[in-house]
Amino acid sequence: MSATPTIAFDAARCDGCGHCMNACVSAKSSDAHRAQPRIQILRDDESGRWGIAQCRQCGDPRCASVCPAAALEKGDDGIVAWDGERCVNCLICTAGCTFGGIAFSAAEGHVVKCDQCEGAPQCVAACTRGALRYVTTANLYNRWGDLEDLFVPGLGGCQGCNTELIMRHTLRRVGSNTVLATPPGCIPGMGSVGYNGMLGCKVPVFHPLLTNTASMLTGIRRQYKRKGRNVTALALAGDGGAGDVGFQSLSGAAERGEQILFICVDNEGYMNTGAQRSGSTTYGAWTATTPIGESARGKTQDAKNLPLLMMWHGCEYVATASTAFMEDFYAKLEAALDASQRGFAYLHLYSPCTSGWRFPSASNIEVARKAVETNFAVLWEYRRDQGLKLSRDIEDPAPVTEYLKLLGKFRHLDATQIAHIERHVAEQAQVLRELARMHPREGRQVVGHQSDLMAVDLDQ
Amino acid sequence: MEQFDYVVLGASHAALEALRAIRAHDSDGSIAVLDREARLPVSPTVLPYVVSGKRPEDRIALRERGWFDDLRVDYRQQAHAAALDSAHSRLRLADGSEIGYGKLLLATGAAPAVPPIAGLSDVRFHVLRTLDDALALREAGRSAGRAVVLGAGLVGMHAAENLARAGARVTIIEMRDQVLPGYFDATAAARIQAAFHDNGVEVLTGRRVERVAPRAGGCTVQLDGGDPCDADLLLVAAGVRPEVSYLAGSGVAVERGVVVDAFMRSTAANVWAAGDVVQTPSFFGDATPAGGILPDAVEQGRTAGMSMAGDPGVQAYPGGVSLNTYGFFGRRALSVGRDAPQQGGADWEVLVRGGEGSDAYLKIVLRDGRLQGVFGVDVLFDPGIMWELILRRVELGARAKALLEDPQDAARALMSGLWR
């Protein structure tokens, strides 16, 4: 069974204009009849909100399970398809659906349901308010599902941690022609390097020191090259191993333009050793080393912006990504992998820590999403030849407090601290906004007189 | 003796859903399905459409053989369980062979109930439960001048309509005072009955058959205190009884069906049951009729399959809610849930629109402001949403009025807000 693209509905953005329904009627009508819309937008007067009735293309469609004529079936394309040749019009499917997704149409004389217009849903195209979105992430999961999982089946991560998702999906795409470095941190802690003499993954993996990941990968990559073999040198490191203890070797490798794909999984601290602060820890956050007491109120410094620091190295490719936006992550992984064949590629992934940040294990993706939606974690990418681009609009962010209040590590914050964080978030967003407007490539046209020879012999 | 991790008896809705649920959690366990029939599984619900000729009998199979193959299920036809020895976890089949199981699902469904009517065993009569029944009835219906249908339940009403369409003069005889008792109240039933009358079908309610006697080419049906009525074709549609003949002495408790707990476990270890073979507890915890409902059989099958496979996601079966979608002469009647009791207290509320002569009839039953039942004739709504609103015990509050005015839109808008 494959995953299916979804038509997502955001009630808060809907104003009930009905364009989606009209578009559906136009798409599904023929000369013979005027179709009943397969999408319905309805107002619940009690709550004052708009609702939707439309087929969800369930993974486990009950309409099909209850059909006595086998007239409904979920196809390989993910669409629950209706077969008019088999349907007996008993309407039992309408008893199986709790979404109002399949209903009898008097005009057409049989039940009708959404088929997502063969991948181009007209209702979504007609929605001008962004209340309907055609989410095709499932296609990526399907494609990724066909790739080999190169980690062991069981990884010992904390419940709800998104790092397993990051590890498996990354290595599936990067593939088996890889040497993997996982410096001390949660990732080897979860089992990447294995236990009892057994490897944790199907590619050569090693466990460098916190300090020398990028240096060791440099040597390995160069040695393979010398032997005539082109392997991907991949690092999966934490923010400590990348930006604090490991920064010297990382900075050096980036500056030299080593052909490495370096992925930093940023959980804003040394989480697997008991949640100590790191350079990436947010101002005000509780950690084991920035406790809350009579006078101590959490970390007193702002986090450094590691991905921006990496950008200033002039890397081939630098990007930030979030597991709440998988399509964006996949696209960036693709670009980073490609860039790592030419030079240094750095990918920075936000990884909310269920245990260290103190939030329910079921809300990891929600926390990650909120971080992005509040501009706390801005998604962007930098290519050496194109400069920095924002990956999504940051002009109308949700209040930062919507993010802060999700996390136990911020529970103690007072108004001054919150104002400090809000200011910092706004400043970072402004910096990125400005950077995205710049066009450094235009500087290629040298202004003034072009010098043809060095006038001075610098070696004297 | 052959041995399987899972053995499933029956291959209809409950069994098929259980197979899917088992495989969703246990990709390796060996599974055998033993089906009494000699053909691919067919739902009893489509049989009226075979009788009417609307659907050819070779296009109605619920699943093709390839479906079982894909699930790596050993699907066997004409395999009839004769006895169950739950103490030793094995089954004896009608051909004398034995099969051992780790876990067993009883999904043998139900067979037509034959009422104790004098002389019935001496005449040729039809029932409608299997494809063979449907083919025989279709054949007989072609030449029947006069047909009598005993029972005005869904099967009887469907068949009567189809026989009438085929040209027979049809009489329906129902013991109780209305057609479709248990599904619709008297007002709704009267609307439906009128449609049959308009289409030339005679409906006699509140009447008993005293005896039947053979007659050349058919039989004579003697009603209580009335004239005898001749029939070329007699269809007995007096309900069903669970197919439990093989369970005698098995250790599986049977009352009005196999007794099960909320995870569809029978009283015998490692034996589950689902679908029409089960004595379905009512969701409402009262005497409301439950069971014999297709979507319910699917729910039970899923619950049983997940429980058998040890799927940690399994949830307790909430109990049966009566649920019917009934089409007649191009019109539609829908019923979900229960009606108010005769002597309901102040906590009950019944909202009705459309009496005699109106375009449509709709009745909404509430208790403590929570939906208990929705019944409509010539009104469309989504029975699946109503079912969910009942199961969730959603308080309707001021929405009840909107629901009565436009049950489809109001329920959709409410449900949409309840989904996250």
Describe the model.
The complex is a heterodimer of chains A (460) and B (420). The model of chain A has no long low-confidence stretch (mean pLDDT 93). By secondary structure, chain A is an alpha/beta fold. Helices cover 30% and strands 15% of the residues of chain A. The longest helix of chain A has 23 residues, at 415-437. Chain A has helices at 19-28, 62-66, 92-96, 122-126, 137-146, 163-174, 186-190, 213-226, 239-244, 247-256, 306-311, 326-339, 364-373, 400-404, 415-437; strands spanning 6-9, 40-44, 49-53, 72-74, 80-82, 102-105, 110-113, 132-135, 178-181, 205-206, 232-238, 261-266, 317-322, 345-350, 380-383, 387-390. The longest helix of chain B is centred in the C-terminal third of the chain and has 16 residues, at 294-309. In chain B, strand 19 and strand 20 form a beta hairpin. The mean pLDDT of chain B is 94. Chain B has 420 residues and is α/β, with parallel strands linked by helices. In chain B, the strands form 5 sheets. In chain B, strands 1, 2, 3, 4, 5, 6 and 16 form a 7-stranded mixed beta sheet that branches. Chain B has a 5-stranded antiparallel beta sheet with strand order 17-18-21-20-19, sandwiched between helices. In chain B, 25% of the residues lie in helices and 27% in strands. Chain B is built from 10 helices and 21 strands. Chain B folds into 3 domains: 2-111 and 241-309, FAD/NAD(P)-binding domain (3-Layer(bba) Sandwich), CATH 3.50.50.60; 114-238, FAD/NAD(P)-binding domain, CATH 3.50.50.60; 330-418, Enolase-like, domain 1, CATH 3.30.390. The chains are: A alpha/beta (460), B alpha/beta (420). The interface between A and B is large, with 37 and 48 residues.
